[in-house]
Amino acid sequence: MDNNRNQNNPKPVKGRPQKKDELKDSYRVNEKITAKEVRLVGDNVEQGVYSIYDARAIAEEQELDLVEISPNAAPPVCRVIDFQKFLYQQKKRAKEQKAKAAKVEIKEIRFGPQTDDHDYNFKLKHAIEFLKEGAKVKAYVFFKGRSILFKEQGEVLLLRFVNDLEEYGKLEQMPRLEGKRMIIMLSPKKQK
Q1: Domain for residue 62, yes or no?
Q2: Average pLDDT for runs of 10 along the chain of length 192
């Protein structure tokens, strides 16, 4: 008996709902459209303003769905299309937009409070390459044990680093201490 109850009325799964359902639920389709009049668009349809009954009849006649694509317009805009095809197109468009979005990469460079010149120059060369590639650079001085006493030395080192990278990147934030690290962020300058 308990098993039957679970099949008919399953408990909601905790967490975020699936994306598929979110996309499906974000559009009103056919009988769920509540407006009295709609602006109709789509293939094989004469565009214009129709009563909701006429619009549904046109969609049924073509064996397609009436999908509300712009609910805030006056009157709401509906498209005559197969709803599954419409969802597929929306997912595809969202995926393309996500791929085109700029992905900012953050590269980290670690110093000790008493880094010598050779190591400093080596890391500086890498930071220049990272900034030229368009990545942000997060540089930090890591203080181990009692080396926290050399905070000023670490700050001077980071400010020197920023000064040496002035033509390649700009400072986003001044050096600040977070736990045992003193951190700065540099973002690349726009290439001309």
Answers
A1: yes
A2: 47 49 72 84 84 87 86 86 87 84 80 86 90 88 80 85 88 84 86 57
Q: How many CB atoms lie within 10 A of CB 88?
A: 11
Q: What is the DSSP letter of 168?
A: T
R_g (Cα) of the chain, nearest Å: 29
Instruction: Name the 3-class secondary structure at 44.
Output: coil
Domain termination site, one of 82, 98, 114:
98
Q: Left, alpha or beta for 51 (phi > 0: left; psi -120 to 50: alpha)?
A: beta
**Same structural domain for residues 94 and 127?**
no
Q: Which of 69, 98, 127 is the last residue of a domain?
A: 98
The whole domain housing 32 covers 12-98
Which pTM value belongs to this model? 0.47
